[in-house]
Design a protein that fits this description.
208 residues; two-stranded parallel ribbon; 7 helices; extended
Length: 208
């Protein structure tokens, strides 16, 4: 459960919950009470800027599960997912997160794409144990590139085929002459010795 509102009121509520031994913590939102009526004064300006950016909204696909509008309105043209109206509604409305979880398959790979993997722990508790839950970015790790690539590596460990070429610039052939060779980076590991069969010796034994 997430509660949004004035900072002091939220802090007081957290203290009351903690006094009753109920786990609660404050989430930094930069001083903005997202998903609450307190955003009303800025919504007209936000609507204008968003409408200028999103000029060609795409209709909802079957895989697009919304958490900002009720399921009964998913196919309503007035609430087209991806439109400026949808984005603005998402900012001011409560998040219908719990209802959306029922659509996640029991064998799904769930990726949290956000500035900080805040919901990974909650998702692991709420979803079946057969689901794989990974956060791509974690605040405070010091190197988000390493965190992101580590998550990609875990996806490989779980058996998912990730197209890494998508995160690198495309290569145009022929490559320039100044392109460094990869061969100096490849070295043999001679720390172990393995025996090999002597087929010439075996053939002599067989002839005898």
């Amino acid at each position: 459960m997430t509660v949004s509102g004035p900072a002091e009121s939220v802090r007081k509520f957290i203290q009351e919950l903690q006094a009753e031994q109920i786990f609660a913590r404050e989430v930094s939102t930069g001083g903005v009470a997202y998903h609450s009526p307190y955003l009303a004064p800025i919504l007209p300006l936000f609507q204008a800027y968003t409408s200028a950016i999103i000029t060609n909204p795409k209709p909802r696909s079957k895989g697009w599960i919304s958490t900002s509008i009720p399921e009964s309105e998913w196919d309503d043209p007035q609430t087209t997912m991806g439109s400026a109206n949808y984005v603005v509604n998402n900012m001011k409305s409560p998040v219908l997160f719990h209802g959306a979880l029922k659509y996640i398959p029991s064998n799904a790979l769930v990726l949290e794409v956000s500035a900080h993997a805040l919901f990974v722990g909650m998702l692991k508790k709420a979803l079946p144990k057969t689901c794989t839950v990974l956060g791509l970015i974690r605040k405070g790790t010091g190197n988000n590139a390493v965190q992101f690539l580590s998550a990609i590596g875990k996806m490989y460990e779980y058996g998912y085929d990730v197209k890494l070429s998508a995160i690198y610039p495309s290569v145009e052939y022929p490559v320039p002459a100044i392109t460094p060779a990869i061969s100096p980076l490849v070295k043999w590991d001679h720390s172990s010795t393995f025996g090999l069969p002597d087929y010439l010796f075996v053939s002599k034994l067989y002839l005898r």
